[in-house]
Amino acid sequence: HGTVGTALHSPVVVQVNDRHANPVAGVIVRFTSPQGGAFRPESIATDAQGLAQAVWTLGTTAGVKTATVTSPSVGTTALTLSVRAVPGPAATIEVSPATSRVIRNKRVQLSARAFDRYRNEIESQPLQWLSSDPRISTVSASGLVHTIADGEVKISARLGDAQSTATIEAFSVQNEIVSAFLATPAAGHLWEVPVL
């Protein structure tokens, strides 16, 4: 496999032989990658050992990529190569939900997705979750936030050098008995209204 947008560690090498398995020099070989990649050089003549090689730079999308090697001297016969292009290092992370108001001692599940510079999603590497103030809220390795005290805290998801945060506001709820006829709205309060 290789990383998107980069050259493979080793060049692609093919050998042209005659019908008796003897190497043939001076045969033009062409390398093509129809899925956004590139070869350098795209065309080259075989050497004295019948070998031709080129460096394959993968395209910017992840997945299985194919390339073909052809030669006018060989006719319509084509050699097909394949390689898996994997995402590069994390460049951005998206955390959801970005903001939450949570009653103290309750939990909220956060999710995060990491992408490389070409927006390929990175699914094979676990993210690290961190709380800016564990006295207010803690977070598990799976992104589950547990609020402990009132206040605001930043929950971060990190992978490599990429990081993104969500804001969690924890608050208390007060139970109050109020008159059914004199009820006045008050933010952050849970009312118990008597039934007459």
Please sum up the structure shown:
By secondary structure, the chain is mainly beta. The chain has strands spanning 2-3, 12-15, 28-32, 38-40, 43-45, 51-57, 63-70, 78-86, 92-96, 99-103, 107-109, 111-115, 121-122, 128-131, 137-139, 144-147, 151-159, 162-171, 174-177, 189-192.
Q: Could you characterize the architecture of this molecule?
A:
This protein has 196 residues and is mostly beta strands. It contains no helices and 20 strands. The strands form six sheets. Strands 1-8-7-3-5 form a five-stranded mixed beta sheet, with no helix packed on it. Strand 17 and strand 18 form a beta hairpin. It is rod-shaped. The chain starts with a strand and ends with a strand.
